[in-house]
């Protein structure tokens, strides 16, 4: 009887697991190799014992942190980057639409993962790249430019343009020499090569009667690149490193420097086990799609590399054969020029395995024809 019950339970478990796989569109064979396990585990890191796993921050940015109640989390993340470089903390006014199409439908829209506006009117773009893309610099330039253009209605004064900050979260290392965070900005140098901040003082005054002063550094965009794999600390020592730890490990560090109110919101909003069932499934599907994408990229690279090696070998062989033929022609042509007959030339070259008799006859004929043409042209 006990064996029967155990058999039934095992059967029910296998059916449930099979249904769950179908629901999440999982192919057990597709995810069986070491490479696929490694890729999946890199996207869903195992949290330290005693901690609750969070959903990946890139998923949270795209799908979860979209309401006013989430502003504190986003403010903390963006402020930790700005304050590291001496900038201010921000206070978010609103989340903006991240896709705009002011022109033709065929025109490329300004597609970003998140676009927020603070109470000073400055805008912050957050973009996430899971896989290596050589165009991510170009895309950053495009999205900042498009954001600026879209904020300026026809006929508006250019001086109303506000600063744009672009934050790239990369799950790869774009340069072996960079650390986990770097900043890009427009720097002005005078003729003596000294760095200066161009300051334009106007005779005009603002609404409060203050003289208008324009700093060039407050107009041109700033770019921040975060390379998540480059953060290797097991413990964080600042709010910024708290965020790096969360980004890399999908869990809150044991000793945190973030405010407790923010920590609680992160845990309540992003803890995987607290998600509704449909959101858990959606998150799993997202991770599996990303895994499949990375696997496809890796396979394409391998195939491309193998194909490239094969093409390279074929090209090298073809070039060698062409040069070898020229060398043979040159040698036989020299013997013809020396006045040797076909039989004498064959005696010289037929013992060489690199020549065959038919090839020698053909080259002797070509050499004689070439000499005849040269003689006629000189005559």
How many strands, what sense, and barrel or not for the largest sheet? 6 strands, mixed
Order of helices and strands: HHHHEEEHEEEEEEEHHHHH
Tell me the structural class.
Answer: alpha+beta
Bin the helical content. 40-55%
Total strand segments: 10
Q: Name the poorly predicted regions.
A: 5-32, 100-110
Q: Count helical runs.
A: 10
What global shape is seen? elongated
In short:
The chain contains 10 helices and 10 strands. It is α+β, with helices and mostly antiparallel strands and 379 residues long.
Key words describing this protein structure:
single chain; alpha+beta; two-stranded antiparallel ribbon
Describe the 3D structure.
The chain is α+β, with helices and mostly antiparallel strands and 379 residues long. Among the domains are: 47-186 and 221-275, no CATH class; 323-378. The chain has 10 helices and 10 strands. The chain has helices at residues 2-23, 34-43, 57-64, 71-84, 136-150, 239-249, 260-270, 277-337, 342-349, 357-378; strands spanning 92-95, 114-118, 123-129, 164-170, 181-185, 188-189, 195-196, 199-205, 211-215, 222-227. Strands 1-2-3-4-10-5 form a 6-stranded mixed sheet, with helices on both faces. The protein has a two-stranded antiparallel ribbon with strand order 6-7. α9 packs across α10 (357-378).
Topology:
Layout: H1 2-23, H2 34-43, H3 57-64, H4 71-84, E1 92-95, E2 114-118, E3 123-129, H5 136-150, E4 164-170, E5 181-185, E6 188-189, E7 195-196, E8 199-205, E9 211-215, E10 222-227, H6 239-249, H7 260-270, H8 277-337, H9 342-349, H10 357-378
Parallel strand pairs: 3-4, 4-10
Antiparallel strand pairs: 1-2, 2-3, 5-10, 6-7, 8-9
């Amino acid at each position: 009887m006990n064996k029967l019950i155990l058999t039934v339970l095992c059967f029910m478990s296998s059916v449930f697991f099979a249904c769950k796989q179908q629901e999440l569109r999982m192919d057990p064979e597709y995810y069986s190799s070491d490479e696929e396990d490694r890729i999946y585990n890199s996207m869903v890191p195992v949290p330290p014992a005693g901690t609750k796993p969070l959903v990946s921050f890139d998923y949270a940015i795209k799908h979860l942190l979209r309401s006013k109640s989430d502003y504190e989390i986003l403010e903390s993340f963006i402020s930790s980057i700005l304050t590291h470089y001496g900038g201010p903390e921000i206070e978010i006014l609103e989340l903006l639409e991240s896709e705009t199409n002011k022109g033709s439908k065929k025109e490329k829209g300004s597609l970003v993962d998140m676009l927020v506006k603070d109470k000073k009117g400055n805008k912050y773009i957050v973009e996430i790249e899971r896989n290596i893309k050589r165009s991510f610099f170009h895309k950053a330039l495009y999205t900042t430019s498009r954001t600026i253009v879209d904020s300026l209605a026809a006929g508006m004064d250019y001086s109303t343009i506000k600063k744009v900050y672009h934050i790239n979260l990369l799950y790869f290392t774009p340069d072996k020499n960079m650390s986990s965070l770097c900043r890009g900005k427009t720097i002005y140098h005078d003729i003596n090569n000294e760095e200066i901040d161009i300051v334009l003082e106007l005779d005009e005054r603002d609404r409060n009667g203050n003289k208008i002063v324009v700093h060039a550094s407050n107009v041109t965009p700033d770019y921040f690149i975060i390379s998540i794999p480059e953060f290797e600390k097991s413990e964080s020592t600042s709010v910024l490193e708290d965020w790096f730890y969360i980004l890399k490990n999908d869990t809150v560090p044991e000793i945190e420097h973030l405010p407790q109110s923010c920590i609680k919101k992160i845990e309540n909003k992003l803890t995987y086990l607290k998600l509704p069932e449909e959101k858990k499934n959606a998150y799993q599907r997202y991770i599996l799609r990303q895994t499949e994408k990375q696997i496809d990229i890796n396979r394409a690279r391998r195939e491309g590399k193998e194909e490239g090696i094969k093409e390279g070998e074929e090209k090298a062989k073809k070039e060698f054969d062409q040069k070898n033929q020229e060398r043979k022609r040159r040698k036989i042509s020299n013997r013809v020029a020396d006045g040797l007959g076909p039989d004498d030339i064959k005696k010289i070259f037929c013992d060489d395995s690199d020549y065959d008799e038919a090839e020698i006859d053909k080259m002797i004929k070509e050499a004689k024809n070439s000499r005849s043409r040269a003689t006629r042209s000189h005559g």
